[in-house]
Recover the amino acids of this structure.
């Protein structure tokens, strides 16, 4: 049984974060374990409170999980504090984890900021260099680089190459926030470049889309797929989950994607 671990925040509304990650792992045939970095009071309309988990307890969760489970891949999501980032980086080193997907969650779909300003530098210095791939959307890529949001694919690729220089082995720049008819993501590696295209799905049910994509990539890696295959399969899964999101009516705001569209 392939095993993936999500290190992320809990979404009390169930659409993003740990909950979205575990649903994605299950839908894709992977056993999911979790290490919670923060609790959020959250629903489809926004985040009203965040309670950070102390760094020493994050470390305790890491050691408990990795000392017992034969983990095949790791997905990292919301890590809002510098101390948490340092603890996670140390845990990845201690347990020799290399198949790491880092989703630099900085702003929720609702617009709420999820990453403290003093944590951005730690994310860039100690966590990004440990990632096999990072998966920023356009606003996150711009924030990490202190640059304007990319408006063209040429600008997306340039920002991806700058992020690659921070130490990750690959960067997936997600174009979901663009206004084109197609949703174009760019996978940038030191010696390769892949353009992934899907028709844009018109829906307001986009809550947890980034969490779902990054955990789907981790699921593919856990099953032994290479990075390129994992990213392509993850994009197909998320596109189908967005297209089927109208079949479930959850909340009054940005509802979740339909993680179990192939099963329900």
């Amino acid at each position: 049984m392939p095993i993936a671990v999500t290190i992320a925040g809990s979404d009390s509304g169930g659409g993003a974060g740990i909950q979205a990650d575990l649903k994605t792992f299950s839908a894709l045939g992977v056993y999911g374990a979790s290490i919670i970095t923060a609790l959020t009071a959250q629903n489809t309309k926004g985040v009203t409170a965040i309670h950070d988990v102390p760094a020493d307890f994050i470390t305790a969760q890491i050691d408990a999980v990795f000392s017992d489970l034969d983990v095949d891949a790791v997905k990292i999501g919301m890590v809002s504090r510098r101390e948490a980032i340092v603890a996670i980086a140390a845990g990845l080193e201690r347990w020799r984890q290399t198949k790491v997907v880092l989703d630099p969650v900085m702003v929720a779909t609702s617009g709420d900021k999820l990453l403290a300003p003093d944590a951005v530098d730690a994310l860039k210095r100690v966590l990004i260099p440990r990632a096999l791939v990072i998966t920023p959307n356009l606003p996150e890529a711009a924030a990490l680089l202190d640059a304007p949001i990319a408006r063209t694919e040429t600008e997306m690729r340039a920002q991806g190459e700058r992020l690659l220089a921070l130490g990750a082995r690959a960067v997936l720049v997600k174009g979901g926030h663009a206004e084109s008819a197609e949703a174009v993501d760019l996978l940038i590696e030191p010696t390769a470049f892949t353009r992934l295209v899907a028709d844009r799905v018109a829906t307001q049910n986009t809550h947890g889309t980034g969490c779902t994509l990054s955990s789907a990539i981790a699921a593919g890696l856990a099953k032994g797929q290479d990075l390129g295959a994992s990213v392509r399969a993850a994009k197909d899964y998320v596109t189908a989950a967005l297209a089927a999101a109208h079949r479930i009516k959850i909340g009054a705001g940005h509802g979740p994607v339909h993680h179990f569209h192939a099963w329900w």
User: Anything to note?
Assistant: The beta strands are 3-11, 31-43, 46-52, 73-76, 100-102, 133-134, 171-173, 182-189, 192-199. The chain has one domain: 3-247. The chain has a mean pLDDT of 93. The longest strand covers residues 31-43.
